[in-house]
Amino acid sequence: MPRTKGSRNAKSAPAIENIDAKIAAVEAEIEELGKNLKAKKNELKQLAREKKAQIALEAAIKAEEDRKAILAAVEKSGKSVDEIPEFLK
Q: pLDDT for 29-68, tens place per residue?
């Protein structure tokens, strides 16, 4: 007995349940990607804070090295630290 055109299409068409399962899987994947995005954003914020702290630390170390170099130059000149501001005027 030959099949009718309609029966052929009915067998080849995906079931609604199959489509619903695919939709649910895609929604779950989107939710997971959203969580991963939030985690990466938080990681980026933390790294930015660490970078800012590192820059501040390096600036403080540089300032201390500069201060020591100035004090060494003042000591080498034979002047006192109090005399230097007057000398610079």
A: 999 999 999 999 999 999 999 999 999 999 999 999 999 9
- If you search the block for the tokens 């007995």, which residue do you land on? 1
Secondary structure (H, E, C), 12-71:
HCCCHHHHHHHHHHHHHHHHHHHHHHHHHHHHHHHHHHHHHHHHHHHHHHHHHHHHHHHH
Domain boundaries, the chain: 15-88
Q: Which tokens go with 70? A: 């100035």
Which is nearest to 18 in space by CA: 29, 26, 8? Answer: 26
Q: Can you give the pTM of this predicted structure? A: 0.57
CB atoms within 10 A of CB 88: 6
Half-sphere exposure of 60 (CA within 13 A, CB side): 6
